[in-house]
Amino acid sequence: MKNKKIETLLIGASDHIDLPEFELYNLACRIDTGAATSAIHCHNVQLVEKMGLPAVSFMLLDPEHPSYQDREYYSFDFKEKIIKNSFGQIEKRFSIKTILILFGRKFKTEMTLADRESMKYPVLLGRRLLRRGFIVDVRLKDLSYRQKIANFSCE
């Protein structure tokens, strides 16, 4: 079996991502090598039945956030996980699979649905995503966002 070469991307302490499945673009995110799983801020998370199937419903971001859409989202691709939060406490959370875009590349990734209301960044990117070819330099920030803006300016 051949070793698949992974392109290495340099990322800073923070950046911006797109979540096309939810029509959310340029969402600020914190890069956290201490977190295993990525997370997104949401509220009204509940297990529901939709079209006869189990689903998790949730609302993303807070009404004060500029990208807030006052919209209920559903995911059928979910699971319940036990997570140790940033305060070291154990809690149950739902996680979903979604596509995120970073450095113009699409990544299918798992994100927990978390209450990040008291956090500066609504999205946290953890090791499971970062191990797919990212090197973190905490002295830098917004590298993919700057690249996107530069590419947009050149068109």
Automatic annotation (TrEMBL):
Pfam families found in the cross-reference section: Zn_protease
Domain Retropepsin-like aspartic endopeptidase: 12-143
SUPFAM superfamilies linked to this entry: Acid proteases (SSF50630)
Gene3D superfamilies: Acid Proteases
The organism's place on the tree of life at top rank: Bacteria
Name of the featured protein: Retropepsin-like aspartic endopeptidase domain-containing protein
Source organism of the structure: Thermaurantimonas aggregans
